[in-house]
User: Which sequence fits this backbone?
């Protein structure tokens, strides 16, 4: 007997606004100074009234458009009631039956180099406020818990997928693609350590029966997972656990309600939390303090226009236009829009996209890592690197010499310039000697002085040429080894 793994995700993404969704308090991540970014609205004091932050709504619509969602022309706000210390009002302002967007999809590439694609349908994306954060005394002595409300009222988009994912790995890839997409369009930093992207995973199994039918196991929601790796581990553990439980109990979705579990990264296991609330338990009702929002087609068109070229389209273009492998294109696009723009200037400028990609993914990336820089602060501008690489394409510099120039440019205090490349090449005599006469004279001399290797080569020992090339290179400093090899072999083959 075997089974299919069925996974749907609910992802909370913090939008990158300066102020909170219903008040003017700062959204800065500031755990060291608890409760300083608060006011009567986000503290839930009596009589305080919320006002929608237009920027939060704009970013939310951009998020939904990037997820290929339909945007509702009319949307309203609902109160979701529950009691928890980090929720001062006793309810969360969210969206229930009329979310601002619905019915989108994300295509996840599940194999390297453009293999299988999994289409993950998006059921809905709605906008809501975040709660605060409870901090429990972990010293083992006290029984105190503290609440930090700096985060209360931060704008969140909650993205709910259909149960279209079929493995823990696919779930991780979906989240990674989602982070790439949302950081690329600039709506969120998706920093998982700071809780800007959190995930709940709904997991169950469809167990194949001997008669060809399938039986579903009870759905388990694993709450608040805050890393890609933990998401994968939590799902893997949950699949194993549910499979063992099914074999023992034969319990199906009809026998048990949906339940909620947490994930303990230290032990790599999920643990029981509480029975899952149903929508009725939250007693949703429209928030009387907030007016509904209407969105026009013109507003949607404007925001769609601001999205620009999304990562998946850019990846395809890099493969067509610059002949990059899916891997190299992915490495560049993963670094963000500014990095992608840098790459394009280098690729266009030197006329060789593959060479540009090699330099960016190796030499440039290594320097950025070692120096703790971003491409925006990198001291070699894109047009200067393009000029350097063009000298390689034009056979004015060897790759080895270009690396030496690159290193010298980085040693300088100032931003690199093409004039500086010119000076370094001249100072160090790095230019390839184009003087065919000098190379041919050196070849003739070396052949005359080395009868043994020459005879060996003519007898078919190709390796014998190596020693001769070395001698010519020493005689004509700055010669292109490729050119020397070609001319020497031509001469020996006469
Ligand atoms: Zn506030
Ligand atoms: Mn939510």
Assistant:
């Amino acid at each position: 007997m075997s089974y299919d793994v069925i996974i749907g995700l609910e992802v909370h993404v913090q939008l990158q606004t300066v102020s909170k969704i219903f008040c003017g308090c700062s959204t800065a991540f500031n755990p060291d100074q608890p409760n300083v970014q608060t006011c009567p609205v986000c503290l839930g004091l009596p009589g305080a009234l919320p006002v929608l932050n237009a920027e939060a709504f704009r970013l939310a619509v951009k998020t939904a458009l990037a997820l290929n969602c339909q945007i509702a022309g009319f949307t309203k706000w609902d109160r979701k009631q529950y009691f928890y210390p980090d929720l001062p009002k006793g309810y969360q302002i969210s969206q229930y039956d009329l979310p601002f967007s619905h019915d989108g999809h994300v295509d996840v590439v599940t194999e390297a180099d453009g293999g299988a694609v999994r289409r993950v349908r998006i059921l809905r994306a709605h906008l809501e406020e975040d709660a605060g954060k409870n901090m429990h005394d972990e010293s083992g002595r006290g029984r105190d818990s503290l609440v930090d409300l700096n985060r209360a009222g931060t704008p969140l988009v909650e993205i709910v997928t259909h149960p279209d994912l079929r493995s823990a790995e696919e779930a991780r890839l979906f989240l990674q693609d989602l982070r790439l997409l949302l950081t690329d369009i600039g709506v969120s930093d998706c920093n998982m350590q700071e809780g800007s992207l959190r995930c709940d995973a709904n997991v169950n199994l469809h167990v194949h029966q001997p008669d060809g039918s399938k039986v579903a196991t009870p759905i388990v929601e694993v709450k608040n997972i805050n890393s890609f790796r933990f998401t994968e581990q939590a799902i893997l553990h949950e699949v194993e656990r549910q499979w063992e439980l099914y074999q023992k109990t034969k319990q199906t979705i009809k026998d048990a309600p949906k339940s909620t579990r947490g994930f303990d990264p230290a032990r790599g296991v999920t643990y029981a939390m509480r029975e899952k609330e149903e929508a009725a338990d939250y007693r949703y009702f429209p928030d009387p303090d907030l007016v509904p929002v209407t969105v026009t087609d013109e507003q949607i068109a404007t925001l769609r226009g601001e999205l620009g070229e999304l990562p998946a389209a850019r990846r395809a273009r890099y493969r067509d236009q610059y002949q990059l492998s899916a891997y190299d294109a992915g490495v560049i696009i993963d670094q963000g829009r500014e990095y992608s723009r840098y790459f394009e200037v280098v690729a266009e400028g030197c006329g060789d996209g593959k060479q540009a990609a090699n330099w960016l993914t190796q030499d440039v990336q290594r320097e950025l890592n070692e120096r703790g820089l971003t491409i925006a602060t990198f001291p070699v501008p894109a047009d200067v690197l393009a000029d350097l690489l063009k000298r390689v394409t034009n056979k004015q510099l060897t790759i080895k010499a270009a690396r030496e120039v690159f290193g010298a440019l980085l040693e300088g205090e100032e931003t690199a310039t093409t004039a500086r490349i010119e000076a370094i090449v001249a100072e160090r005599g790095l230019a390839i000697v184009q003087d065919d006469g000098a190379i041919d004279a050196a070849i003739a001399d070396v052949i005359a002085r080395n009868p043994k290797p020459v005879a060996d080569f003519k007898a078919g020992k190709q390796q014998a040429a190596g020693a001769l090339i070395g001698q010519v290179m020493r005689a004509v400093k700055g010669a292109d080894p490729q050119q020397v090899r070609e001319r020497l072999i031509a001469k020996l083959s006469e």
Observations:
- The mean pLDDT is 92.
